[in-house]
Amino acid sequence: MKLFSKATKTLMQHRKLINAAGGDKKTEARNKKGILTARQRLLELFQPGTFQEYGAHMRHSCTNFGMEGKVVPADGVVVGSGFIDGRQVAAISQDFTTMAGTVGKVHAQKIVTVMEYAQKMGIPIIAFKDSGGARIQEGVDALSGYGSIFYQNVNISGVVPQIAIISGPCAGGAAYSPALMDFVIMTQKNAHMFITGPQVIKSVSGVECSMDDVGSPEMHASISGNVHFLAEDDEHAIQIAKHLLEFLPCNNSQDPPHRPFTETHMEGDPGMDRLVPDNPKAPIDILRLIERIVDKGDFLEIHAAFARNIVVGFGRIHGIVSGIIANQSSEKAGCLDIDASDKAARFIRFCNAFNIPLVTLVDVPGFLPGIEQERGGIIRHGAKLLFAYAASTVPKITVILRKAYGGAYIAMNSPELGADAVYAWPIAEIAVMGAEGAVNILHRKELKDVENEKERAEELAQEYRDNFSNPYLAASRGYLTDIIEPSQTRSIIAASLQRMLQKRELRPHKKHGNIPL
Predict the structure, then answer these.
(1) Is 173 one of the catalytic residues?
(2) Catalytic residue among 168, 172, 315, 382
(3) Hey, what domains does the chain have and what are their CATH numbers?
């Protein structure tokens, strides 16, 4: 009995040391700043009492630079799994209070092990990134550890959802692990992410810049596009992650957590009609329209601050989880450009990997013209969008709201790219280009020879609209499933989704396609 008591006492001492991590002073200092510790984040994330830790007693074996005998509790990272709303989720939480959460061989081994566990169990994984980077004392072993983490990120990509929460420093090679994950949430307090910081940039290029210029949450959310969600603090980041999980399956062999209505109600929504301006050139706030389509207005927008000319996100339509892609005509007239193409293509590929139906709302006048766009590779980037839609085998529904011109009409999930149903409002304009542009090409010679050129051009433009820029020609050729009233949009989409949930589409066997990256 004494032996057992002594062993238990030793165990309790070990656990106390592990749980204390960097000590009370560091914990108090973080909490005063409104920042949670690694373990506090996991307590906030999971249902009480459900988190089970793995490898708490693992220790490094480094003997260089005074590391011999140095105790690093849990080797600077807490890993394991717990339950969120009854579903098991794996988690990684780097501990900045312990050697700044730096990554060494054992640290990386723990991360890889829990990622492998997530793959075997078929469960999502959430990773809190809060690290000073590679553990310099371990040299190449630290670099090897990073490589093994990156490999595992890629290995489970498309198998289980991966969510990164940048809640502290994420510098150098450390930034590539979240970049390889599906969604990145970044807190506006204490967090920054970059490959090379201001000092390195200045020493190499002579250019002076601030941390906000290269690594701030706002910059990554709006300019680089590396961050999908901005959070006020740790608690808000966790709330976003939980909301995101509500729309996702646990793995790629499951369907999303649909909650289909027992009956499909086909009643109209007159409020939708009021969102449509009389002037066809006036913008529609697509977010207000989406809120009327999804259940209870619950739309989780992704990449909200980046490439605002296109909107992507998750919602339920009559209980069916859907990935929604829509042109935002109040930004750049809803044109497709380099960033919008990348943003939409990546979202589409995620939805396809995890069996989430796609709903596309089209109001696009074309690809954005400009020297910068051409030199930046709009052809290549636009092709990503074409590739993503064409390669997707989930249910795909398109509604053409107003403009759908030229190559952009094709790129926004046209029937030729595999759309299962394409609807159009009566005011939809489906054509190679706008009426004015078409008249300038088709009637160039005639307009040169008339005195009232402007008046005649307007007449010809109206004639072109009547004959070509409407949905009826497209419908007569079989390119449209139906022409619907705006008030019918939600009910028609809901009915279509319910009919298509059993869709199965086989493609030619191949290793993978070659997306134009």
Answers:
(1) yes
(2) 172
(3) 2-245 (3.90.226.10), 270-433+471-500 (3.90.226.10), 435-468 (no CATH)
Distance in angstroms (rounded) separating the CA atoms of residues 46 and 242: 10
Residues 73-96: tens digit of each pLDDT: 888 899 999 999 999 999 999 999
Element (H, E) at 103: none
State the CB neighbour count (10 A cutoff) for residue 211. 13
Rounded Cα distance, 155 and 378, in Å: 30
- 3-class secondary structure, 473: helix
State the CB neighbour count (10 A cutoff) for residue 129. Answer: 25
* Strand positions, DSSP E, 4-96: 52-54, 77-84, 87-94
Q: Which is catalytic among the residues 319, 376, 407, 437?
A: 407
235 in Cβ contact with 188 (< 8 Å): no
DSSP summary character for residue 418: T
Alpha-carbon distance 380 to 515, whole Å?
9
Residue 374: the pLDDT is 96
pLDDT at 65: 82
How many of the other CB atoms lie within 10 Å of CB of 88?
17
DSSP per residue, 277-339: -SSTTS---HHHHHHHHSGGG-EEEESTTSSTTEEEEEEEETTEEEEEEEE-TTSGGG-B-HH
145 assigned to active site: no
Q: What are phi and psi for residue 112, nearest 5 degrees?
A: -60, -40
Residue 376 CA to its chain's centroid (Å): 22
Which segments of 354-417 does DSSP mark as H helices, in order? 371-376, 378-391, 406-411
Indicate if 147 belongs to the active site. no
| Alpha carbon distance 22, 96 (integer Å) | 8
Catalytic one of 118, 164, 404, 408: 408
Q: Rounded to an integer, what distance in angstroms lies between the CA atom of residue 47 and that of residue 123? A: 16
Query: Could you count the other beta carbons within 10 Å of the beta carbon of residue 288?
Result: 13
13-26 pLDDT, tens digit per residue, is: 888 888 877 788 88
Cα separations in angstroms, 448 against 392, 454, 456, 458: 47, 10, 11, 14
- Please say if the pLDDT value at position 3 is more than 80: no
Given a contact cutoff of 8 angstroms between Cβ atoms, the answer to whether 123 and 250 are in contact is yes
Q: How far apart are CA 406 and CA 366, in angstroms?
A: 6
Residue 365 C-beta-side C-alpha neighbours within 13 Å: 20
Q: How confident is the model at residue 443 (pLDDT cuts 50, 70, 90)?
A: low
- pLDDT, tens digit, for every residue of 368-389? 999 999 999 999 999 999 999 9
User: Strands 421-424, 396-405: parallel, antiparallel or unpaired by DSSP?
Assistant: parallel
Distance CA(474)–CA(470), nearest Å, equals 8
